[in-house]
Specification:
The protein has about 190 residues and is of the alpha+beta class. It is built from 9 helices and 8 strands. It has a 4-stranded antiparallel sheet. A 4-stranded antiparallel sheet has the order 2-7-4-5. Helix 4 packs across helix 5 (about 120-145). The chain is globular. The protein starts with a helix and ends with a helix.
Amino acid sequence: MEKFKHFLQAISPITDQEFADTIPFFTQQQLKKGDFFVAQGRICRQVAFVEKGTLRVYYLNAKAEEITSCFCTEDNMTTSYKSFILQEPSDLFIQAIEDTSLLAIEYGNLQKLYTTYPNWQTIGRALVEKEYLNMEKYASVLNNETAKEKYLRLQKEQPNVLLKAPVEHIASYLGVTRRTLSRIRKEIASGI
Protein backbone atom coordinates (compact mmCIF):
# COMPACT_ATOMS: atom_id res chain seq x y z
CA MET A 1 0.00 0.00 0.00
CA GLU A 2 2.85 2.37 0.76
CA LYS A 3 4.15 2.21 -2.83
CA PHE A 4 0.67 3.04 -4.11
CA LYS A 5 0.39 5.96 -1.71
CA HIS A 6 3.72 7.40 -2.92
CA PHE A 7 2.63 6.86 -6.53
CA LEU A 8 -0.54 8.90 -5.92
CA GLN A 9 1.26 11.62 -3.96
CA ALA A 10 3.66 12.11 -6.88
CA ILE A 11 0.62 12.94 -9.02
CA SER A 12 -1.39 15.08 -6.59
CA PRO A 13 -1.12 15.83 -2.87
CA ILE A 14 -3.23 13.28 -1.02
CA THR A 15 -3.43 13.35 2.76
CA ASP A 16 -3.07 10.28 4.94
CA GLN A 17 -6.77 10.57 5.80
CA GLU A 18 -7.83 10.81 2.14
CA PHE A 19 -5.72 7.76 1.35
CA ALA A 20 -7.21 5.82 4.28
CA ASP A 21 -10.73 6.82 3.20
CA THR A 22 -10.23 5.77 -0.41
CA ILE A 23 -8.26 2.53 -0.02
CA PRO A 24 -11.41 0.46 0.82
CA PHE A 25 -12.53 1.12 -2.78
CA PHE A 26 -9.60 -1.03 -3.98
CA THR A 27 -9.08 -4.79 -3.84
CA GLN A 28 -5.89 -6.85 -3.81
CA GLN A 29 -5.57 -9.29 -6.70
CA GLN A 30 -2.98 -11.96 -7.33
CA LEU A 31 -2.31 -13.20 -10.85
CA LYS A 32 -0.22 -16.27 -11.54
CA LYS A 33 2.09 -16.30 -14.55
CA GLY A 34 -0.15 -16.73 -17.61
CA ASP A 35 -3.33 -15.40 -15.93
CA PHE A 36 -5.25 -12.65 -17.69
CA PHE A 37 -6.20 -9.31 -16.15
CA VAL A 38 -8.14 -8.49 -19.33
CA ALA A 39 -9.15 -10.75 -22.21
CA GLN A 40 -10.01 -9.59 -25.72
CA GLY A 41 -13.75 -9.42 -26.28
CA ARG A 42 -14.53 -8.92 -22.59
CA ILE A 43 -15.39 -5.58 -20.99
CA CYS A 44 -12.54 -4.31 -18.84
CA ARG A 45 -14.17 -3.37 -15.55
CA GLN A 46 -11.05 -2.48 -13.54
CA VAL A 47 -7.96 -0.34 -13.54
CA ALA A 48 -5.04 -1.57 -11.44
CA PHE A 49 -1.80 -0.47 -9.87
CA VAL A 50 0.97 -3.03 -10.36
CA GLU A 51 2.47 -3.58 -6.92
CA LYS A 52 4.71 -6.43 -7.99
CA GLY A 53 5.26 -8.28 -11.24
CA THR A 54 5.01 -7.62 -14.95
CA LEU A 55 2.14 -7.81 -17.44
CA ARG A 56 2.14 -7.84 -21.21
CA VAL A 57 -0.44 -5.95 -23.27
CA TYR A 58 -1.05 -7.45 -26.70
CA TYR A 59 -3.58 -7.82 -29.50
CA LEU A 60 -4.11 -10.15 -32.42
CA ASN A 61 -3.38 -8.80 -35.89
CA ALA A 62 -5.22 -9.78 -39.09
CA LYS A 63 -3.11 -12.96 -39.31
CA ALA A 64 -4.04 -13.87 -35.70
CA GLU A 65 -0.45 -13.19 -34.61
CA GLU A 66 0.13 -11.78 -31.12
CA ILE A 67 1.51 -8.23 -31.27
CA THR A 68 2.89 -6.91 -27.98
CA SER A 69 2.19 -3.21 -27.54
CA CYS A 70 3.30 -2.63 -23.96
CA PHE A 71 4.83 -4.11 -20.84
CA CYS A 72 3.27 -2.95 -17.57
CA THR A 73 5.79 -3.01 -14.77
CA GLU A 74 5.78 -2.35 -11.04
CA ASP A 75 4.62 1.03 -9.76
CA ASN A 76 2.51 1.73 -12.84
CA MET A 77 -1.18 1.60 -13.69
CA THR A 78 -2.71 -0.79 -16.20
CA THR A 79 -6.04 -1.31 -17.91
CA SER A 80 -7.52 -1.59 -21.37
CA TYR A 81 -8.25 2.14 -21.38
CA LYS A 82 -10.70 2.27 -24.27
CA SER A 83 -12.68 -0.66 -22.90
CA PHE A 84 -12.58 0.67 -19.34
CA ILE A 85 -13.63 4.22 -20.19
CA LEU A 86 -16.36 3.25 -22.67
CA GLN A 87 -17.32 0.01 -20.89
CA GLU A 88 -17.22 -1.90 -24.17
CA PRO A 89 -15.40 -5.13 -25.15
CA SER A 90 -11.61 -4.87 -25.15
CA ASP A 91 -9.46 -5.23 -28.25
CA LEU A 92 -6.54 -6.10 -25.99
CA PHE A 93 -5.28 -8.88 -23.79
CA ILE A 94 -3.40 -8.05 -20.58
CA GLN A 95 -1.57 -11.10 -19.28
CA ALA A 96 0.83 -11.67 -16.39
CA ILE A 97 4.24 -12.82 -17.60
CA GLU A 98 5.21 -13.59 -13.99
CA ASP A 99 3.33 -13.85 -10.70
CA THR A 100 1.83 -10.40 -10.22
CA SER A 101 0.20 -8.49 -7.37
CA LEU A 102 -2.33 -5.77 -8.24
CA LEU A 103 -4.35 -3.19 -6.38
CA ALA A 104 -7.50 -2.83 -8.50
CA ILE A 105 -10.57 -0.62 -8.52
CA GLU A 106 -13.88 -1.29 -10.30
CA TYR A 107 -15.29 1.23 -12.76
CA GLY A 108 -18.24 2.13 -10.50
CA ASN A 109 -16.03 2.65 -7.45
CA LEU A 110 -13.71 4.92 -9.41
CA GLN A 111 -16.71 7.02 -10.45
CA LYS A 112 -17.66 7.27 -6.74
CA LEU A 113 -14.15 8.46 -5.91
CA TYR A 114 -14.39 11.11 -8.63
CA THR A 115 -17.62 12.51 -7.19
CA THR A 116 -16.70 12.16 -3.51
CA TYR A 117 -13.05 13.27 -3.55
CA PRO A 118 -12.23 16.11 -6.00
CA ASN A 119 -8.53 15.24 -5.74
CA TRP A 120 -9.29 11.97 -7.54
CA GLN A 121 -10.45 13.92 -10.59
CA THR A 122 -6.96 15.43 -10.75
CA ILE A 123 -5.38 12.00 -10.31
CA GLY A 124 -7.61 10.44 -12.98
CA ARG A 125 -6.92 13.21 -15.48
CA ALA A 126 -3.15 13.01 -14.86
CA LEU A 127 -3.16 9.23 -15.37
CA VAL A 128 -5.09 9.47 -18.64
CA GLU A 129 -2.77 12.23 -19.88
CA LYS A 130 0.26 10.10 -18.99
CA GLU A 131 -1.20 7.12 -20.85
CA TYR A 132 -1.89 9.24 -23.93
CA LEU A 133 1.69 10.53 -23.92
CA ASN A 134 3.01 6.97 -23.57
CA MET A 135 0.91 5.84 -26.53
CA GLU A 136 2.06 8.77 -28.66
CA LYS A 137 5.68 8.09 -27.72
CA TYR A 138 5.31 4.41 -28.61
CA ALA A 139 3.81 5.28 -32.01
CA SER A 140 6.69 7.67 -32.68
CA VAL A 141 9.29 5.08 -31.64
CA LEU A 142 7.71 2.44 -33.90
CA ASN A 143 7.82 4.76 -36.89
CA ASN A 144 11.10 6.58 -36.33
CA GLU A 145 13.58 4.23 -34.69
CA THR A 146 15.46 1.23 -35.97
CA ALA A 147 14.98 -2.10 -34.26
CA LYS A 148 18.37 -1.70 -32.56
CA GLU A 149 17.41 1.77 -31.27
CA LYS A 150 14.11 0.37 -29.98
CA TYR A 151 15.95 -2.41 -28.16
CA LEU A 152 18.40 0.04 -26.59
CA ARG A 153 15.46 2.21 -25.48
CA LEU A 154 13.76 -0.80 -23.87
CA GLN A 155 17.06 -1.73 -22.22
CA LYS A 156 17.33 1.78 -20.77
CA GLU A 157 13.69 2.39 -19.79
CA GLN A 158 12.51 -1.10 -18.75
CA PRO A 159 15.59 -3.29 -18.21
CA ASN A 160 13.71 -5.84 -16.10
CA VAL A 161 11.46 -6.64 -19.07
CA LEU A 162 14.50 -7.99 -20.91
CA LEU A 163 15.10 -10.39 -18.02
CA LYS A 164 11.49 -11.47 -17.50
CA ALA A 165 9.73 -11.47 -20.87
CA PRO A 166 10.09 -14.36 -23.33
CA VAL A 167 12.14 -13.59 -26.44
CA GLU A 168 9.11 -13.82 -28.74
CA HIS A 169 7.27 -11.14 -26.71
CA ILE A 170 10.24 -8.78 -26.83
CA ALA A 171 10.64 -9.35 -30.57
CA SER A 172 6.94 -8.68 -31.09
CA TYR A 173 7.14 -5.47 -29.05
CA LEU A 174 10.08 -4.30 -31.17
CA GLY A 175 8.36 -5.30 -34.39
CA VAL A 176 11.09 -7.75 -35.42
CA THR A 177 11.55 -11.50 -35.76
CA ARG A 178 13.28 -13.59 -33.10
CA ARG A 179 16.18 -14.00 -35.50
CA THR A 180 16.57 -10.23 -35.91
CA LEU A 181 16.39 -9.78 -32.14
CA SER A 182 19.14 -12.35 -31.71
CA ARG A 183 21.31 -10.48 -34.24
CA ILE A 184 20.66 -7.16 -32.45
CA ARG A 185 21.66 -8.65 -29.11
CA LYS A 186 24.86 -10.03 -30.60
CA GLU A 187 25.71 -6.65 -32.15
CA ILE A 188 25.16 -4.86 -28.85
CA ALA A 189 27.16 -7.43 -26.90
CA SER A 190 30.08 -7.11 -29.34
CA GLY A 191 29.88 -3.30 -29.34
CA ILE A 192 28.89 -2.93 -32.99
